[in-house]
Amino acid sequence: MSSKKNKTSYVILGLLNEENLSGYEIKRIVDDRLSFFWNESFGQIYPELKRLTSEGLIAVSSADRPVYSKQSIKYEITEPGRLELQEWLKSPVEKELIRFEILLKLYFSNANSSDTMLEHVKEFQTSHLRQQQLFQQFEAQLKQNIDVHSNHRQILMVLSFGQKMWEAYAAWSEETLRLLEQNITAQEDDTDE
Amino acid sequence: MSSKKNKTSYVILGLLNEENLSGYEIKRIVDDRLSFFWNESFGQIYPELKRLTSEGLIAVSSADRPVYSKQSIKYEITEPGRLELQEWLKSPVEKELIRFEILLKLYFSNANSSDTMLEHVKEFQTSHLRQQQLFQQFEAQLKQNIDVHSNHRQILMVLSFGQKMWEAYAAWSEETLRLLEQNITAQEDDTDE
DNA sequence: AATAATTTGTATCTAAAAGATATATTTAGA
DNA sequence: TCTAAATATATCTTTTAGATACAAATTATT
């Protein structure tokens, strides 16, 4: 037990702890609910489902076996799987992983490329506004029908994190667009003289 | 030219565009200045330095050749390298990469594990406060001696992003600690009855 | 009803990145 | 002089991201 595992395995165990799911459904849930702080690919999920099954931490669910000719394979968590999940929850949190290419480009840019950076920041602004709105819907939905998830309080705390991030993104975008515009007009004045 | 490259190559080109550096120095600068939104490992940097050299985008600097017996190899950017960097700056920004294990744990936790989560959030709070303070020093330093970097305005915009993130982290930590404490006292009241 | 397009579902492959480790040199301090 | 820490280059393994292939099932269109 407790052999160091990749993170994908805990995503699977965590989700199966709530309900039986297929690999595809796991991918969908991660994309829909966790994508603002976590992502998984099929290339991680499917091999891991097999490994966890062979290790006895999850099992193919006989209850949800393919009715008629559905090819979907649903998995359920086992007791050892639950223990593994609980142990991981208690283990120290690993440092977050962050990569913002936009900041890398901004860092390496100069006054001359302010117009390009302006476009980049505008795109950043609108794409995150869209993402924020999508999650606000989810949040509103969650607040209406309480107790659908046993852990709805925890989910709300996670969503609050997202909310604060998007607010920070919005404020930074506004501020940075202003600064870049200043750069551009300053540049134009230079060439005019 | 413009063959799709891994991001490490642009970090190298971007930094060498300012000054000649060795692999080790590149790693240090990334750790010291970019680490709050970007990271690189030696395992990425050294092979990439060789590849970029063989492609002619960078070159071993003869100017900074080892005086006496220093084994350090410094690299300089070439004209094709500068072009490659400029092209990348103009290319669309890729979506940021984010992985917060703490949010994953919180999402999969329940009321029973509030005490564990409380410890996790406390650790999160203090480690980011420390990081924020380190970068505030860098920012103050940068604001004093302007024009050491030609792109100091851009660097300040990047640092402002960090600042807003750390403020969001702090606010979320406070809020979440309060909520988790409520959970714990509610649990205790339950078991008392 | 036939066809086309989309969604659901499982699976694998490659390239990129993280993290760990090995090793040697140089510098600073006890 | 010996030791510890910092500098420096290098490689190896595991993990992850992203792309792609393919087939069945569902939905939409004509």
Automatic annotation (TrEMBL), chains A, B:
<dbReference type="Pfam" id="PF10400">
    <property type="entry name" value="Vir_act_alpha_C"/>
</dbReference>
<dbReference type="InterPro" id="IPR018309">
    <property type="entry name" value="Tscrpt_reg_PadR_C"/>
</dbReference>
<dbReference type="InterPro" id="IPR036390">
    <property type="entry name" value="WH_DNA-bd_sf"/>
</dbReference>
<dbReference type="InterPro" id="IPR036388">
    <property type="entry name" value="WH-like_DNA-bd_sf"/>
</dbReference>
<protein>
    <recommendedName>
        <fullName>PadR family transcriptional regulator</fullName>
    </recommendedName>
</protein>
<dbReference type="InterPro" id="IPR005149">
    <property type="entry name" value="Tscrpt_reg_PadR_N"/>
</dbReference>
<feature type="domain" description="Transcription regulator PadR N-terminal">
    <location>
        <begin position="12"/>
        <end position="87"/>
    </location>
</feature>
<dbReference type="Pfam" id="PF03551">
    <property type="entry name" value="PadR"/>
</dbReference>
<feature type="domain" description="Transcription regulator PadR C-terminal">
    <location>
        <begin position="98"/>
        <end position="181"/>
    </location>
</feature>
